[in-house]
TrEMBL record:
This is CDP-diacylglycerol--glycerol-3-phosphate 3-phosphatidyltransferase. It catalyses: a CDP-1,2-diacyl-sn-glycerol + sn-glycerol 3-phosphate = a 1,2-diacyl-sn-glycero-3-phospho-(1'-sn-glycero-3'-phosphate) + CMP + H(+). It is a multi-pass membrane protein. The chain crosses the membrane at residues 38-59, 80-96, 135-152, 158-177. It is an enzyme of class 2 (transferase). It comes from the Bacteria. It comes from Methylacidimicrobium cyclopophantes. Its main location: membrane. Residues 1-19 form the signal peptide.
């Protein structure tokens, strides 16, 4: 196992640790004795996970430690950290409203389920589905992580970032739907698909 993969696994383990401390934070709110130490611990774990994402990528590129396991675990770890954070921030027990609206969590889950389901269907139909990030997806991920960080810090503009993130999530979903349709029905007249440097069309 490479060091890059070890860092990725540590990021994956940050998800249950964040869930534990943020749940304790919610319980302290319910008890009427809010303990910000849990919230700060959750924020610290979130930042550590975000930094480890850059670190494992650097290690993999610098020392050529790319591996099949790492390519699978890296996006899984990112999604786990984001989804666990959103789940906690939309459902933590609190006498006040949750820091983030539940519809945002539903939107993120729906987009990801739609994407995974679409790729699975295309592959079952023997269609080639090259995986390459699209800028709308990157922007959605960036603003989603920024939303979580702002909510953990109790910043007043966290909801504004949430709406920006939602816009990019919907834009990326539309792009994926359009691209998947073109892969499924290549004979339909439509603008050409964006290509990667290798010349292959891109779904992501």
């Amino acid at each position: 196992m490479t060091w890059a993969t070890r860092v990725t696994i540590l990021r994956l383990l940050c998800a249950p640790a964040m869930a534990a401390v943020l749940w304790q934070y919610g319980k302290s709110q319910t008890a009427g004795a809010e303990d910000d130490r849990y919230r700060i611990a959750g924020f610290s774990l979130f930042i550590a996970a975000a930094l480890s994402d850059a670190l494992d990528g650097f290690i993999a590129r610098r020392w050529r430690q790319q591996s099949a396991l790492g390519k699978v675990l890296d996006p899984v770890a990112d999604k786990m950290v984001l989804l666990v954070s959103l789940l906690c921030l939309t459902t933590i027990p609190s006498p006040q409203s949750a820091p983030l609206p539940v519809w945002f969590l539903v939107l993120v889950l729906s987009r990801d389920s739609f994407l995974v389901g679409g790729i699975a269907i295309l592959r079952l139909l023997k269609r080639e589905v090259p995986i390459h990030p699209h800028w709308t997806g990157k922007a959605a991920t960036f603003f989603s992580f920024l939303t979580v960080a702002a909510a953990l810090l109790k910043l007043p503009w966290a909801i504004a970032i949430c709406w920006i993130s939602a816009g990019f999530i919907l834009a990326s979903a539309c792009f994926y739907c359009s691209t998947g349709w073109r892969i499924l029905f290549p004979s339909v007249s439509c603008p050409p698909l964006p290509s990667s440097r290798s010349g292959r069309t891109s779904l992501l």
